[in-house]
Amino acid sequence: MRWLSDLSKIKNHASCAIIDVSSCSHTQVHFSYSDLHKRALHLRASYPHLYNQCIAISARRLSDFVSALFAFEGHCAAIYLLPKNGLSDKTRSNKSIAAGHPKQENNLVHETYNLPEYAQLFIPERADTQTLKSRQAMQNEGLNQQSTSKVSLDTQFYLATSGTSGKAKWIGHNTDSLTKAIKLKPQLTDLRWALCYEPSRFAGLQVVLQSMLSGASLLDCSEGDFETRANRMLLHKVNAISCTPSFWRQLLMQKSSESLELQHITLGGEIADHAILRALSHRCPEAKLMHIYASTELGVGFAVSDKQAGFPDKWLSEGVNGHFLKIDAQNHLRIKPNIALDKALAPLIDENGYYDTGDLVSHIKNRVIFLGRASGLINVGGAKVSPEEVEHVLLASPLVQQAKVYGKANSVLGQLVAADIVLKQPLEVSTSEAKQSLLTLSQNNLARHKIPRIIHFVSAIDANDSGKIMRHRAADETAGKPCVIENSETNHE
Predict the structure, then answer these.
(1) What is the crossing angle of helices 62-72 and 2-9, to 10°?
(2) 108 neighbors 96 (Cβ within 8 angstroms)
(3) pLDDT tens, position by position, 274-292
(4) How far, in Å, are 200, 358, 359, 379, 430 from residue 374 at the CA level?
(5) Rounded-to-integer distance, Cα 346 and Cα 354, Å
(6) Strands (E), 166-298
């Protein structure tokens, strides 16, 4: 009952806790900390039969998600956090479900999200109807409201990894591992956070908990186009944002973002390169700027606040935040965390307790630089290319707003390096000049096999619900004909 107890301590806080925004009607609803506390208490009191049970929560509205989260932490044995919209769209489109067949709904949800059979589906939007049914069940079974005073449990939270294909892979956390990186300082209550991640993902949940447990305000910006989100942030005077570098690049393109008076800037989920760190530092020189290394599997590893890419190499010998780091023979970053990891990760942990993150790094002078995911390498005639390494070179061009690099099948070499490029607007040069500029930049900074041979100039690059670039998709053919770059004789190997 820790989170509900923490919420009770700040229920009289004057600031607004959550600003909910409907993706359909765009209406806005404000919820105070007192409102959330009452709703959470009501939910817990209404569902005593869920004590020590396993549930799966799916909520469309942020306020419903937070209310259920705080109500059942310490009450349920396990909680699976389902996507914000995916469940509702899939289940409500099924005619048999719409007709009121809960068993069929549960079967569909369990199959779609790979849930254990004993997990009970809980949709907060239906709480009023469900409450009536549960109260009747309580009367029939002789249950009462005394279950709200039962011993608080160490609830296990299960979060899905950020992959976009196949069955969900669930990773377990407890309250301690989810809140280890949360900062509780008086000055943080004045922050107005924008939630740009899916709240059920690890990164989104961190923003929710940081905001709620510190008494700050939280604006739902997890849906909508970037212009709409930027305007929403400006309207509600957002001063703290956490999102991926790809999201930041899109946000910086919006005119209204120039008027945001940001105090806290956080990047995560992708590699934070020098170009985006420099752009954000220039835009908001007074803001606290940091990029965070975290994952669903590990939790929060560390935060880098010196406005440089990568992290200091002294952490390899000294550790950071109670974590120990090392680089293995395959140039993978390994971490020995200060928390117990999910048992499912055992195959990736060596005999000394170091977890293989799967992230490729390079030790350069006094810095460790991230190169990309080992699983995402492009194979060019047997030579391996990191898409992120090539992207960082392209993003250094003043002409480029966003870039995605991927492998394109080739009958001779196996794969060629291809790139989707969003050019900054207004474009002051022709596309042919832009192509030549990118070719020259690549030749000067990349080995020959890493140079993009195919470039698509596109209007946008798709990202998943966490704001990460969707790397399994090639350029949309409707985006225009590709600009093909001929092989260069220059060799920088």
Answers:
(1) 120
(2) no
(3) 999 999 999 999 999 999 9
(4) 26, 6, 6, 12, 36
(5) 10
(6) 170-174, 192-195, 217-220, 240-243, 264-267, 288-295
Are residues 164 and 63 in contact, defined by beta-carbon separation less than 8 angstroms?
A: no
CATH topology of domain 2-218: Rossmann fold (3.40.50)
Among the CATH numbers 1.10.8, 2.30.38, 3.30.310, 2.30.30, which is that of 314-375? 2.30.38
Strand, coil or helix: what is 17? Answer: strand
Strands 54-57 and 78-81: parallel
CA gap 187, 214 in Å, rounded: 9
Question: Which of these ranges, 70-79, 124-133, 241-250, has the smallest mean pLDDT?
Answer: 124-133
d(CA 175, CA 155): 7
d(CA 352, CA 48): 43
Q: In the chain, which segments carry CATH 3.40.50.12780?
A: 2-218
Per-residue exposure over 151-186, b if at least 16 CB sit within 10 Å of its own CB, e if not: eebebbbbbbebeeeeebebbbbebebbbebeeeee
The tokens for 154 are: 């160490």
Kindly report, residue by residue over 141-178, the tens digit of the pLDDT: 444 444 445 789 999 999 998 654 445 689 999 999 99
What angle (nearest 5°) sits at the alpha carbon of residue 228, between those of residues 224 and 231? 145
Mean pLDDT calculated for residue range 355-364: 96
Domain 377-484: homologous superfamily in CATH = ANL, C-terminal domain (3.30.300.30)
Residues 6+ apart with CB under 8 A from 471: 376, 387, 404, 406
Angstrom distance (rounded) from CA 123 to CA 138: 19
Determine the Cα–Cα distance for residues 396 and 440; give it in Å rounded to an integer.
Answer: 12
From the list 278, 296, 33, the residue with the least C-alpha distance to 162 is 296
CATH 2.30.38 in the chain is located at 314-375
The residue type found at 430 is S
